[in-house]
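Quick one:
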Amino acid sequence: MSALAGLHIVELAHERGALAGKLLADMGADVVLVEPPGGAPQRSNGPFVDDVPDRERSLSWWHYQTSKRGIALDWRAAAGREALLALVASADLLLECEDPGVLEAAGLGDDVLTGAHERLIHVSMTPFGPDGPRRHELATDLTLLAGGGPAWSCGYDDHSLPPIAGGGQQGYAIGCHYAVLSALTAVLHRELGGHGQRIDVSMHQAANVTTEMATYHWLVRQGTVQRQTGRHAMEQLSMPSQMACGDGHHVNTGVPPRTPAEFAKLVSWLEELGVKDEIPEAVFLEMGAARDSIRLADIGVDDEVTAIFAAGREAMAFLAGRLPAQEFFLGAQRAGLPVGVIHSPEEAFEDPHFVARGMQVAVEHPALGRTVTYPGAPYAFEKSRWAISRPAPQLGEHSDEVLEAVGIDAAGRAQLRAEGVLE
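Output:
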């Protein structure tokens, strides 16, 4: 059974919050996506299937709207507002990303939402929160990542180059994860005897507390971390760990051996490859393997520990330069040493490891008459099923069935269409 089966959600279509609705829908919630007649702006985002621009062929729309049912309703019009309120009355949760004041201006303030429905959970996502001096500032995924702080920590050792914002709409994704976690916490609270509530998610603040060490270093020490190629941003720069392998592909050599067991595995790997004698520092690796323990705090203090730790990093660098990237990655995995091979998105999607874990999911597209391969679950539960239950809705695909279920009959729907409120 799906983890969220029986949870009914109304989502007002907006690119900023689309991932939140997808995460809930793919885990079994019944998410009704409400977009305006003519289609949500996200339908215009390329690339498009077969490079044919069309509101039903946007890959961005396809990815972020899986498992949802969709209606096309102008809730800003009076008749559309009443239809939306009928949907909300039977929902557990309302998810929306409208700018501050927009819902109130349309007659959809708290008095008719959480104020009128004791069990309703209203999750609102805005760039800077519903009040405060910045509430009306415009924002994009890029500005959220830059202003919130994550971009400062991402980039290269060469600081003449600007910071780099992570791809894949990570600014929006961060806010969406906070929205989902908050929503599910509110559901648990309600089901344990509480009631519905209004939840406001500031996407800027969500990004700011998702900066690993940067924000906390500044708040606690007034220290500024420095971005580094392929490794954690730190106040004090660490040794480079990203290297070109024997085949020209790159890897992050990761965290070098830290324990005697890890040094023993590294020695065994070198012996298996027949290259241990080519590494002058191998004697320190063996010393590390023979110790009872290695205290990282002793690096730079104890000469022997310092030499052992440096030898581990040098040995990893030696292997990376000698082996093809994938062979280095798999060998390190077998030895229990954390490293990363740097793939293009296409290479990562086809990687046998991800394929074996079910990352590729076939989804039937009846309108196209073919199956399309999607990225799979971001997480897996032992007993709860994750699934893409349907492809993204076509414009107005479920308008009739959704509105009929809340008491708006055929005549009522015809009137809404005649007024241009429903498609």
